[in-house]
């Protein structure tokens, strides 16, 4: 599949910035906050430089590697940019494959803590892995920063002092998508095809509740395939038999790719008036499927054309320079998560775990997607916007993109804190 060329990119996003590094000045150290003295992780006199070691945990193999690899690239790009500027702390990142398994995730986290002596565990491609690693990190007094996993639990009823999320959670994302779905559709009969684990069931519960409130919807079919099942013929037929107006799915990455390919064999999308995808990672699926992609209502935590700001244009150009492709949401979110750590060090003056916690609590910082705020009350990020809308063929790339955008302000779909720190 041909990649989008630089000239095409510049036409799609507007005039290029005068220089990537200059445009990303807000994403590099522009304050006088120091690092530490290299011995106890404290201090702020800038007298020496030490490494902040980050252990990056995501699926790098199997059907969910479509999110792991761009997440890895986002971490690497942020570390490269940070280390190319004058900072009191030099970042170092180690990548480990969780295989989308909580047990493997904790095993790899233990290796990173005990063998590499990392200060931060970051990433987490699935909710079950995030929950397990959050608990492990707290037992080791190591920071855990979720940049991908959406389970509300880690910043809700299971919240821990050492756990943060620098991206929207599933309550925020699914509520925003439900709002857009209700506004863009007329149907009231809904069906769900959702993976049978924490994330899938939780998103489906939120979507049902929101659609009942907003569109007086009723559920006519519900299927809960096993996580990573791969074969969805039974689910496809059950949903078609129910003849819903709207089908919602929170399948993601390789699972959603497999589902779409199989569903097309049943003329599924010709029979279903509206297909809604709630994974929050639709661009990576679209890019993988190419011309096999289908039209739908969807959300993405980041889409490279929005917002049309100098900061975002510079980020996209820097990504293309390093990777010769367009960035997808998980890459940007992990990139932003690494920069949140830098901002926390600048804010607190130190890079030990207590200083990082202090610097992240209440932090407001700029990312390519816009302003992010991390609530001190529960360590949950609030994004400026959640990007929702219709996805279909576009003339600026070789994959399906948003043809109609309906951004939902993050503040408007963020529940009140539900956290008592452990």
From TrEMBL:
Residues 52-383 form the Leucine-binding protein domain. The keyword Signal applies. InterPro entries: BCAA_transport, Leu-bd, Peripla_BP_I, TAT_signal. Keywords: Signal. It comes from the Archaea. Gene3D superfamilies: 3.40.50.2300. Pfam families: Peripla_BP_6 (PF13458). The keyword Lipid metabolism does not apply. PANTHER family: ABC TRANSPORTER SUBSTRATE-BINDING PROTEIN (PTHR30483:SF37), LEUCINE-SPECIFIC-BINDING PROTEIN (PTHR30483). This is ABC transporter substrate-binding protein. It comes from Halomarina halobia.
């Amino acid at each position: 599949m041909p990649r989008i060329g630089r000239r095409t990119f510049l036409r799609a996003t507007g005039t290029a910035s005068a220089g990537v590094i200059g445009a990303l000045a807000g994403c590099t150290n522009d304050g006088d906050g120091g690092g530490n003295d290299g011995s106890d992780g404290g201090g702020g006199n800038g007298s020496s430089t030490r490494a902040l070691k980050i252990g990056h945990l995501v699926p790098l193999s199997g059907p969910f590697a479509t999110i792991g690899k761009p997440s890895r690239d986002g971490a690497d790009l942020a570390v490269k940019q940070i280390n190319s500027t004058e900072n009191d702390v030099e970042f170092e990142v180690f990548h480990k494959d969780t295989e989308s398994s909580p047990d493997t995730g904790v095993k790899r986290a233990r290796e990173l803590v005990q063998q590499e002596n990392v200060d931060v565990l970051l990433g987490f491609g699935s909710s079950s892995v995030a929950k397990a690693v959050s608990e492990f990190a707290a037992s080791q007094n190591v920071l855990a920063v979720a940049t991908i996993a959406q389970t509300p639990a880690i910043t809700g009823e299971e919240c821990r002092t050492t756990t943060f999320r620098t991206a929207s959670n599933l309550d925020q994302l699914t509520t925003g998508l439900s709002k857009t779905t209700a506004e863009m559709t007329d149907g009231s009969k809904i069906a769900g095809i959702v993976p049978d684990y924490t994330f899938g069931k939780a998103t489906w519960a939120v979507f049902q509740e929101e659609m009942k409130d907003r569109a007086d919807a009723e559920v006519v079919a519900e299927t809960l395939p096993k996580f990573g099942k791969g074969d969805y013929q039974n689910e496809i037929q059950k949903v078609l038999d129910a003849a819903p107006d709207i089908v919602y799915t929170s399948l993601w990455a390789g699972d959603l790719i497999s589902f779409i390919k199989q569903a097309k064999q049943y003329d599924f999308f010709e029979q279903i008036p509206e297909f809604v995808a709630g994974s929050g990672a639709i661009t990576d699926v679209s890019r993988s499927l190419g011309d096999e992609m289908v039209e739908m209502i969807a959300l993405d935590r980041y889409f490279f054309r929005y917002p049309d700001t100098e900061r975002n244009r510079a980020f996209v150009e820097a990504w293309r320079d390093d990777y010769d492709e367009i960035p997808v949401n998980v890459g940007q979110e992990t990139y932003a998560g690494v920069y949140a750590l830098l901002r926390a060090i600048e804010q607190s003056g130190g890079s030990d775990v207590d200083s990082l916690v202090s610097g992240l609590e209440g932090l407001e910082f700029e990312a390519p997607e816009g302003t992010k705020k991390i609530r001190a009350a529960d360590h949950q990020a609030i994004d400026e916007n959640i990007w929702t809308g219709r996805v279909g063929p576009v003339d600026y790339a070789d994959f399906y993109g948003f043809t109609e955008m309906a951004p939902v302000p993050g503040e408007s779909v963020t529940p009140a804190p539900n956290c008592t720190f452990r």
